[in-house]
Automatic annotation (TrEMBL):
PANTHER family: NITRATE/NITRITE SENSOR PROTEIN NARX-RELATED (PTHR24421), NITRATE_NITRITE SENSOR PROTEIN NARQ (PTHR24421:SF10). The keyword Nucleotide-binding applies. This is histidine kinase. Residues 184-249 form the Signal transduction histidine kinase subgroup 3 dimerisation and phosphoacceptor domain. Keywords: ATP-binding, Kinase, Membrane, Nucleotide-binding, Phosphoprotein, Transferase, Transmembrane, Transmembrane helix, Two-component regulatory system. It comes from Streptomyces netropsis.
């Protein structure tokens, strides 16, 4: 505003002086020139809002040889503004033509008064040089400044867009990190349940049997004591393996200073989760994100059933179809379903008979664990949190399978699962 006011005052002073001079030369009252010069020069205050109007005013007073500053500043503002280039070109051409005409006539008059008669080419060359000197520089400078402004605005908008995009990516990385932490907690809880519940359930059953026969049959009591020790060692081995995996994962996390970017930490967690999921789809990891070498498989079903038999359960294992190798995730899920089902029989139906069926079908593996009603044996007093069936359903559903459980008409309980063989073993 200060610049525009200063330019307007100078333009008013110039237009008034030139208007008075023009009026004196043509025998007109000098006050008329001043009256015309004041509003014409003051129009420069409107150059930022209405640059076209300012240029039109400068063109209109060109025949009176007024408003050189008005014309120069107006053309510069017009070229630097967002006015369409066609309008800028037309107005600049009109200003150039007016300046050419006025300069040509004035130059001839001055030369005639001095008694000098130059050639026509001298008059044309001088006129063109004056007109271009008053018109071309402000227009070219205005075009350059306008292009630079647009470039800066474009870069600023692009920077703002990138900042918003980075903010969205940070929010998404934070959501992924939360999701990854929840998935990790669920996986650890499921593994702890599978490892501890089954082994400890068998240990409790054996301990109860040991207590019952300790005085009557020392040999059988010694055997049961050995089985309890084996169960405890197996549980500890599986816990150590799982803790080893967690320890290996935590070794790759480098401690950061408090000033480090939180987004990088969140992105790293999300990248680890994504890598686990991608690797799992390729067969490199199981459905819980563990390495392929960890966890049991279908080959261990016979030993699993044997452990339940050793605990006093009457359980049968039947296998249908041609045996073949499945993906690690498929085999581990199938094993865990049978393991949890047998654990539930130990908990809720002591002394009941159980039957485990495994069927190798084309494109899938089917499992069924069914037990009859309890024979009224003493309850082992094992606690139940209701997470076993939920964990089995989650495991099977994660692989796109079907899980069904419920009581039978005979008073027992049945657990069935069909797992698609989408990930074949190498």
């Amino acid at each position: 505003m200060a610049l525009d006011v200063a330019l307007a005052l100078v333009s008013v002073l110039e237009c008034v002086l030139e208007g008075v001079q023009f009026a004196d030369e043509h025998g007109l009252p000098g006050a008329l020139g001043a009256v015309v010069g004041v509003p014409a020069g003051a129009s420069l205050l409107l150059r930022r809002r209405w640059p076209v109007a300012v240029v039109l005013v400068s063109i209109a007073i060109t025949p009176a040889e007024m408003g050189f500053l008005l014309s120069i500043v107006g053309l510069y503002t017009l070229a630097a503004s967002e006015v369409p280039r066609r309008i800028t070109a037309v107005l600049a051409g009109a200003s150039l033509a007016g300046t050419l005409i006025v300069t040509f006539v004035r130059f001839e008059q001055d030369m005639a008064q001095d008694g000098y008669q130059p050639g026509l080419w001298v008059v044309v060359a001088f006129t063109v040089a004056m007109a271009l000197g008053l018109t071309a520089p402000p227009v070219l400078l205005g075009l350059y400044v306008g292009a630079r402004r647009r470039l800066v605005d474009s870069l600023r908008e692009r920077a703002d867009g990138l900042e918003r995009e980075l903010s969205l990516l940070a929010d998404r990385a934070e959501e992924r990190a939360v999701w990854a932490r929840n998935e990790e907690r669920t996986r650890i809880a499921r593994e702890m349940h599978d490892v501890v519940a089954h082994r400890v359930s068998l240990m409790v059953v054996h301990a109860a049997a040991l207590q019952a026969v300790a005085l009557k049959d020392p040999e059988k009591a010694s055997k049961n004591a050995g089985l309890v020790g084996d169960m405890g060692r197996q549980a500890l081995t599986e816990l150590r393996e799982m803790l080893g995996v967690l320890r290996t994962s935590s070794d790759g996390v480098v401690a950061e200073k408090p000033a480090a970017a939180q987004t990088q930490r969140l992105a790293a967690v999300a990248a680890v989760a994504s890598a686990r999921v991608s690797a799992g789809a390729a067969g490199g990891h199981d459905d819980d994100g563990g390495p392929v070498g960890d966890g049991p498989c279908l080959d261990g079903l016979a030993d699993l059933v044997g452990q339940s038999r050793a605990a006093g359960m009457a359980v049968e294992l039947s296998v249908e179809g041609e045996e073949r190798a499945y993906g690690r995730r498929v085999e581990r899920t199938a094993y865990r379903v049978v393991q949890e089902a047998l654990t539930n029989v130990h908990k809720h139906a002591p002394g009941a008979k159980a039957q485990v069926r495994l069927a190798h079908r084309e494109g899938e593996v089917a499992l069924q664990v069914e037990n009859g009603p309890s024979d009224g044996g003493a309850d082992a007093g094992l606690p139940s949190g209701g997470n076993g069936l939920v964990g089995m359903r989650e495991r099977v559903s994660a692989l796109g399978g079907v899980f069904v459980s419920g009581p039978t008409e005979a008073g027992g309980f049945r657990v069935s699962a069909v797992i698609p063989d989408r990930v074949r073993a190498a």
